Amino acid sequence: MSDQARHRAPDDDAQPVVRAADPHPAAGAEPMVRAENVHKAFGHVKVLRGIDVTVPRGNVCVVLGPSGSGKSTFLRCINHLEKIDAGRIWVDGNLVGYQQKGDKLYELHDKAVAAQRREIGMVFQRFNLFPHMCALENVIEAPTMVKGHGRADARRRGMELLDRVGLADKALNYPSQLSGGQQQRVAIARALAMDPKLMLFDEPTSALDPELVGDVLDAMKDLARSGMTMVVVTHEIGFAREVGDQLIFMDDGVVVESGAPREVLANPRHPRTRDFLSKVL
Amino acid sequence: MTIPDTSATPVPRDAEPIKAIPVRHPGRWVAIVVIAVLAAMFVHLLVTNSAFQWKFMFQNMFTPPVMRGLLGTVSITILAMIIGVVLGIVVAVARLSNNPILRGTSWAYTWFFRAVPRYVLLIVMGNLGILWPRLEIGVPFDTYLGKLFGLQDAHWRLFGITTRELLVGFWVGVLGLALSEAAYMAEIVRAGMLSVDPGQDEAATALGMSRAQALRRVVLPQAMRVIIPPTGNETIAMLKDTSLLIAVPVTAELFFQLSAIGNRTFQVFPMLVAAILWYLFLVSILLVGQYFLEKRFSRGYGRAAKAKMKLEGLAAEHGANPELP
């Protein structure tokens, strides 16, 4: 078992010891995601130029913005698929990808990073299901291989999750035999199978035919109602308005505007937000 | 022209099938005639030229030494391919690793073994005994260390064997071919791994799988589709390259045995023809195997299969559960 996992005993809220070790102790509940002044460049292109975001536990944070604004990159930084160049990201009070000892920052070993990722589910735009495994095998792969769960247990839990996204009858179908919407729901079930405390969605409905978007959004709404903390990069304004607790509008690597979704969508203050919304609404 | 009534359900109408005169291909008939004449000339050569000595050839191409050579050729092919594939996967994974030392070492390996011709490599392997008459495992620099402590001729060796025992034909042949094959297989495996959508590795990583798990469970199984067909070609090439083992030399090998009979009886040409017939036979078997392997591993990726999948996907969309494999 990794250090992170050992620190986090069953009840997250009753762990003042961990908070004390955190260099940035927060009053009250530690937010699930905290990003401070995050920078990221690919070569000479500065994709993120100082992102500050806080997502409290159980909140749904919707990230909007034109393509190329850095939304997806920011999301990928949260589970360390991308290494950030400057700033800090904490998930559940743990620094992502690094360890702070005094004023020195140590890169975490691959194993420790993998342990952090286990707690963060991710859903991709292009589903990225494993094509050589059926839906159920996709769902139980990580619990059996990474967590060492027994196959029988994992299969039972996998069927529960597939049932939850409405695909219990497709458990033995291969991804190529499923529609895009069905594949994406299997991908959601696959991420949930690791019992994450945070779910990241990277434009989950952008690659879908319009008539298949609804089922995926329903599965995500269901997840939000169950109290899951979610960060969702999307173009679905309706979803943002209905489900989001918090909306972030990004443009050119910075957060231009943020606030309650209904408010931001109804009265965008920044001209770039206004411009974007006028195009997508 | 009438505009059809769009409010009514369209009814399929009958149509007369097209009856057209097909395009003529006179060039094909000319080609058939030319090929027929050439084929007849070849058959005439086979039947009338006495140098073929067909009877002698058939009498001698199934003798016990030839059969032992056949067994040697087949087993060296299999062993060299197994070692070559396993080592090739290791080298390919090292080549794509994040570790610069592994990357550099594997690059140097493929560079060396792809640059040296197999025939030359096999000769060198057969002559390694010149370099080390005895192979020994022990304390490095033992004689020099011994001198430091005032001992003359300190030989701190655990065990050793003379290379003449080690470098007997068969295993040197297997090793030489396997080492060379691994370099080519590494390139094939690497291409296969690179052909897998990077999103797959990313999805595995995001689930918390280690790099080794992602490789073994997600990337390599999908790379197989790209790796298998060229591996079939490599196996065929390997079977043929066993005829180079004369360089080591390995005597338990098909071509050596056949040409030995030819040289001994002064009937060189019939035994060369026998060799061709044997190789045609063996490679044909491999080609059949390759056909089925490719069919199995390209499942669901051909044009027809893709169309079929699309249909199944549509059926799945409408609630029908297609037959599971």
Explain the overall architecture.
The complex is a heterodimer of chains A (281) and B (325). Chain A is α/β, with parallel strands linked by helices. Helices cover 37% and strands 24% of the residues of chain A. Chain A contains 11 helices and 12 strands. In chain A, the strands form 3 sheets. Chain A has a 6-stranded mixed beta sheet, with helices on both faces. In chain A, strands 2-1-4-5 form a 4-stranded antiparallel beta sheet, covered by helices on one side. A two-stranded antiparallel ribbon of chain A has the order 6-7. In chain A, a hairpin with a 2-residue loop joins strand 4 (86-91) and strand 5. In chain A, helix 7 (180-192) packs parallel to helix 8 (210-225). Mean pLDDT of chain A is 89; it is low at 1-27. With 325 residues, chain B is mainly α. Chain B is 68% helix and 3% strand. Chain B is built from 13 helices and 2 strands; from the N terminus they run αααααβαβααααααα. Chain B has helices spanning 26-48, 54-60, 64-95, 100-115, 118-126, 142-148, 163-166, 169-195, 198-206, 211-241, 254-265, 268-297, 303-317; strands at 134-138, 157-162. Chain B has a two-stranded antiparallel sheet with strand order 1-2. The A-B interface holds A 79, 81, 110-111, 114-115, 117-118, 120-122, 124, 126, 128-132, 141-142, 145-146, 169-170, 172-174, 176-179, 182, 187, 190-191, 194 and B 197, 199-200, 202-211, 213, 217-218, 221-222, 300, 309, 312-313, 316-317, 321-322, 324-325.
